[in-house]
Task: inverse folding
């Protein structure tokens, strides 16, 4: 009898490997559930914190900023920068929103959720 | 052997499928006195890094506060020829053309007036009448000459703040294209360019800032498909003196902050520098003259008045999917 080019066990084996690869891929996908606040100074990420956990984070540069996460929102709790624009931004909680402290070169942006808009012109 | 080959090819096919999807790359930096945010779907962050380097280089050439910049060197040598970079010459040429085209509603030679008000410094104040008159005397863009890369300010003080971000956006958009990036949104201080669709197939959506809200509040949304948007508003970068708020958009004719019933103007076009220039120029012109100018020049614009009316050029709402999100504002 002639050898078959592809046997049944070949197909089963290949399917099993394919399934394994797909499973690995699926579990290494970036998680989109759960929102994070990404805090940067001078463009470099200094912290990435889940909004689900209450926390405080101080960022020191030319000025002193303290971010506070409470009940899924982030705000600038303390700053000694000259214009205090960052403080006036208030609390943010939705993906894409950000708090900017220009004098200190610090930003806090919420990522991970579904953003309502991808940018704001103004 | 055959089985191993089979497995390998199956794994390779799957890997190819999975790995070809571009990854989200993001960058946020401060430059040009503003917040530069970029998001692109690409295999690497190279294009965004190159954009950041370009932005810092342009800032070094065209800032009015960096002493070694082309602009500062030209301003420090009134009546003398100053060699500038090709990029500075290109931006200045576009700005001078726009000044001519808008009858001076846009001017790249307002440096002395901006300095008299102290905008952008800790010493912002209302200038005295004589101070302002003398600053205005030095603020005629028609004294500026440009020949090749040689600038002579004729005694005026250049300020390219109203054009350089738009120019940088143009250059960044070109660089994204050169890098083969097919989906991205980049915002240089609220001047935004978006190309392609998001990975879920939807268009990039941009909010138009609500002048009465905070930095994250918007009153309407539009969709950008390969277009550039820029907004000039009276609610930014100002200061209060004796209970009066003075914003930073100055009328080149009077030297005073614009006060004509408009709060903001949003312009969409096929170039960042045009959007940047015309959003300022139309705000200075006012609703009536600005709308007529926009229609005549084929500029897509949205005017926001103090009494919360939205006026647009023909076809704006349909072209950009304008959706008003704050009930306090009304179209028409």
Result:
């Amino acid at each position: 009898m002639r050898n078959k080019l592809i046997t049944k066990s070949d197909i089963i084996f290949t399917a099993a490997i394919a399934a394994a690869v797909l499973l690995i891929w699926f579990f290494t996908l970036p998680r989109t559930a759960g929102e994070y606040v990404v805090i940067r100074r001078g463009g470099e990420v200094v912290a990435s914190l889940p909004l689900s956990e209450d926390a405080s984070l101080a960022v020191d540069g030319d000025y002193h900023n303290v971010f506070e996460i409470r009940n899924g929102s982030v705000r600038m709790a303390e700053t000694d920068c000259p214009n205090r624009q960052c403080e006036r931004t208030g609390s943010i909680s939705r993906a894409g929103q950000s708090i900017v402290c220009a004098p200190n070169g610090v930003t806090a942006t919420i990522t991970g959720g579904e953003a309502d808009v991808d940018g704001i012109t103004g | 052997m055959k089985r191993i080959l089979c497995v390998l090819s199956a794994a390779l096919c799957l890997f190819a499928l999975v790995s070809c999807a571009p990854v989200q790359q993001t960058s946020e930096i401060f430059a040009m006195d503003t917040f530069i945010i970029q998001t692109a779907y690409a295999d690497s962050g190279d294009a965004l890094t190159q954009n950041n380097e370009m932005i810092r280089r342009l800032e070094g050439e065209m800032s009015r506060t960096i002493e070694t910049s082309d602009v500062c060197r030209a301003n420090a040598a009134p009546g003398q020829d100053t060699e500038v970079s090709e990029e500075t010459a290109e931006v200045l040429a576009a700005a001078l053309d726009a000044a001519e085209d808008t009858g001076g509603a846009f001017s790249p030679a307002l440096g002395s007036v901006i300095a008299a008000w102290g905008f952008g410094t800790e010493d912002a104040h209302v200038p005295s009448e004589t101070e302002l008159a003398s600053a205005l005397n030095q603020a005629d863009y028609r004294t500026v000459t440009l020949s090749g890369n040689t600038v002579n300010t004729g005694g005026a003080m250049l300020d390219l703040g109203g054009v350089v971000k738009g120019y940088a956006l143009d250059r960044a958009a070109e660089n994204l294209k050169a890098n083969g990036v097919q989906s991205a949104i980049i915002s240089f201080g609220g001047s935004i360019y978006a190309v392609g669709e998001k990975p879920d197939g939807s268009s990039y959506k941009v909010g138009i800032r609500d002048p009465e809200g905070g930095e994250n509040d918007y009153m309407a949304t539009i969709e950008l498909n390969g277009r550039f948007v820029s907004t000039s508003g009276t609610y930014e970068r100002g200061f209060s003196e004796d209970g009066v708020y003075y914003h930073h958009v100055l009328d080149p004719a009077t030297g005073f902050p614009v006060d004509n019933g408009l709060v903001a103007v949003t312009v969409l076009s096929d170039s960042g520098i045009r959007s940047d220039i015309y959003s300022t120029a139309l705000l200075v012109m006012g609703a009536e003259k600005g709308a007529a100018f926009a229609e005549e020049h084929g500029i897509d614009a949205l005017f926001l008045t103090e009494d919360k009316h939205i006026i647009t050029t023909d076809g704006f709402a349909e072209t950009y999917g304008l959706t008003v999100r704050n009930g306090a504002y009304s179209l028409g």
About this structure: Chain A has a mean pLDDT of 86. Chain A is about 20% helix and 40% strand. Helices of chain A lie at 8-28, 85-88.
